[in-house]
Amino acid sequence: MQDAARIAAVIDALEQIFKFEQPADNTLNLYFRTHHYIGSKDRRFVAETVWAVVRRYGRYSALCKKLTARIAAALYLQEIGLSPDDYFTGEQYAPEPLKAAERIEYKELSPMLECPEWLKNKLDIADISAMTEPAATDLRVNTLKTTRDKVLKELEDFSPEPTPFSPIGIRLQGRPQITSLPAFIDGRVELQDEGSQIAALLTQAKAGDVILDWCAGAGGKTLAMAAMTQNKGVVYAVDLNTKRLRDLPDRARRSGAQNIVVLTDYKNLKSGYDLVLVDAPCTGTGTWRRSPDARWRVGKKQSAELVKTQRDILEKAAKSVKAGGRLFYITCSLDEAENDDQITAFLKKHKDFKLENLAPVFKEITGKTILTPVVHLSPSTFGTDGFFAASMIKE
């Protein structure tokens, strides 16, 4: 494809994404499936450019009354030092020339504009700024099969580095095709952000534990806890959206995890689990580095509904924890209403649960000192996705 045709494809994809009706990665994947003639190199260019523009949606919107895909693409070309008129030519496969109303002059604006108005007083400016940059490529080393040192040596062509805080993580430069790496194919590594790795390690899952992953999603933390238990004990995985779990059995076989049981629903759950993990549905404000469109897809009303859902899940999940067991609560949100406030409300109502101090566990895992019994992983401080974690022990 010619460069102008590539920009035209970027505009086509952005027109769908800017509706913010579904996750942008779903929209982009559908676009490529329906435009199969786009080759791999062109697809990579289009994808990278689309994501770069989406990360600037708030700032570009502040420069005009109504941001369109065409205006956004033109602004991005200006930002990287190119003239839009060289691409918007109207020639074969190129976008039509810009109209007078579409000729907006690019200006550098504050990253604070990449935060919806209703959230600006809830999030730290440093975190908002940090999350305008793309996330690194992090891998979790599967300790059932190998060690981090061995994988670091194997992947030396990708300039790998140990993650600074997770003892089982590796950070790669660039965007290599992870799924084609032998280490991935053989189940020796999994794609997982360092923050998510730390959250899983904080659960302190150990050999012999009977564990319930209440909101397992695709099963990333399920696999991590199975490795922590050394295949001794059982890790049950369940999710309201059963489609999310469809690949977990194959992933478990690839990783050598033999103690994972996928449940089809929440019926007939035991009441004697050593550990119940609630990785609760949330606004995902901590994941904006890798899901920049998410900030524009969730509003104040949806946030309030999610807070209620989290409260309901905690109530139900608490019934499955045995005496002496732990209810472990995680979100990938930076909003206090979804984090500290939820734990405070839960403990006030459930006197049979006591908050566990995670500070010593966090210090052992990361080498860093925190001053609170709960964990706040900040994108600006730790360079990870934003996470909150709290552990409550049932007496």
List the helices and strands and how they pair.
Blueprint: H1 3-17, H2 24-34, H3 40-54, H4 57-61, H5 69-79, H6 125-130, E1 137-141, H7 148-154, E2 161-162, E3 169-172, H8 182-185, E4 189-191, H9 194-202, E5 210-213, H10 220-228, E6 234-237, H11 248-255, E7 260-262, E8 273-279, H12 294-297, H13 300-318, E9 321-331, H14 340-349, E10 353-356, H15 359-366, E11 375-377, H16 379-382, E12 387-394
Parallel strand pairs: 5-6, 5-8, 6-7, 8-9
Antiparallel strand pairs: 1-3, 1-4, 2-3, 9-12, 10-12, 11-12
Helix pairs in contact: 1-3, 1-5, 9-10
Account of the protein in words:
- With 395 residues, the chain is α/β, with parallel strands linked by helices.
- It has three domains: 3-109, no CATH class; 137-191, Sun protein, domain 3 (Alpha-Beta Plaits), CATH 3.30.70.1170; 194-394, Rossmann fold (3-Layer(aba) Sandwich), CATH 3.40.50.150.
- It has helices spanning 3-17, 24-34, 40-54, 57-61, 69-79, 125-130, 148-154, 182-185, 194-202, 220-228, 248-255, 294-297, 300-318, 340-349, 359-366, 379-382, and strands spanning 137-141, 161-162, 169-172, 189-191, 210-213, 234-237, 260-262, 273-279, 321-331, 353-356, 375-377, 387-394.
- Strands 5, 6, 7, 8, 9, 10, 11 and 12 form an eight-stranded mixed beta sheet that branches. A four-stranded antiparallel beta sheet has the order 2-3-1-4.
- Helix 1 (3-17) packs across helix 3, helix 1 (3-17) packs across helix 5 and helix 9 (194-202) packs across helix 10 (220-228).
- The longest helix is centred in the last third of the chain and has 19 residues, at 300-318.
- The termini are far apart.
